[in-house]
Amino acid sequence: MPHHDLVIIGTGSGNTIPDERFADMDVAIIEHGVYGGTCLNVGCIPTKMYVYAADVAETIRRAGTLGVDASIDKIRWADIRDRVFGRIDPISAGGQRYRQGQEGTTVYLGHARFAAERTLAVTPTEGPTGNRAPVEVTGERVVVAAGARPAIPEVIASSGVPFHTSDTVMRLDEVPRRLTIIGGGYIAAEFAHVFSALGSEVTLATRGPALLREQDEEVSARFTELAAGRWNVLLEAAPTAPPEQRGDGTIVVHTHQGPIEGDALLVATGRIPNSDRLDAAAGGLALHSDGRIVVDDQQRTTAPGVWALGDVSSEFQLKHVANHEAAVVRHNLLHPDEPRATNNAHVPAAVFTEPQIASIGLREQDCRDRGIPYVTKVQRYGDVAFGWAMEDTTGIVKIVAAPDGTLLGAHLMGPEASSLVQPLIQAITFGLDARTMAEKQYWIHPALPEVIENALLGLPLDPEQE
To answer: Does the annotation count 445 as an active-site position?
Structure first.
């Protein structure tokens, strides 16, 4: 039975842990899918490469509002796809070759399940089908970074009708003329933008009363209204029966709002942790009710010598969170007597749809529901000089603060929101109040960040509490 000093399950953020400081250790890395994990292969990176192409297409379509007459001659979907995966696939393959050729590192290409504490049965995913007997592997220490996967409603999964998820839809051979998307979260919103900009007629059906309901209620409402003007948006439209496929290939999805006809179906109804595929209980790992592995603030599981990180354990399914947690685990493996704790007090996030959305901290509804005193200010992009230049009519910055100016949250919707939010991330993280943030530094005129400055200055603060 092979025994290793460290066993890592998953090659996303988990693969970043072993560096030169682990050179004297016997390290094993186990991967049951494509090397490199979700973000590289089917998540953040390829989707944003598609989003950028979609943004360019939409910019061309709207150029006339600025007095620049332009048109799109052709969308070369296959070229877009091949540009994306022509870069990503070699990175994935190169990462695997590097680890396989690294002295002191063993790569197991297979699916891991706990057989006992710090003991894993690895079933190979490569090699002759009849010769894939599990190999038992043990480790002094184990890191579980097994990620998550798309959640598929049973009514669709059991129907036999072909469907796509975020794992597969980017590899299509052509843009579907009519694309049906089931879901109303960030994955649905991003792919609705991509495919509509690149030629599809998109119908987006969600079970809830609005899109992006995890956002601040005002941002969610505004985005839902904008989306309805661009896509066919059906609210409170959960599937009611298994979808059907007609002889001509048309896929019919039955919902509370009636049937939807499309040429392809994308299911974007969330993601679930892969803990259910690990026999976690056999390894002594406790799980939350939603399937996440239980960890403490040092990323330790309930099993001695076992850590977990990323989507398999975190409530934040975000790459920057997984990377942060991986860095904490790396330190704690190397310095067990001086452990560090994960800091997820202020986690920002962005949705790369159109318009972009970014957020950090408390939403207005959080303050209201928790009885926290607060004030808000909504500042339009179009009220500052660069907003005028862009002819922007929909972008907003919403600041949520305590009456004394303590910043509680920030919620942006508009061009470059994912970049514009960064100074507000810094302010909230380091405890800068609204007045200090706005008045104690220069804001370049007439750059777009002035919209943040004006939002901070516009907060209706209580002068007696400042």
So the answer is: yes
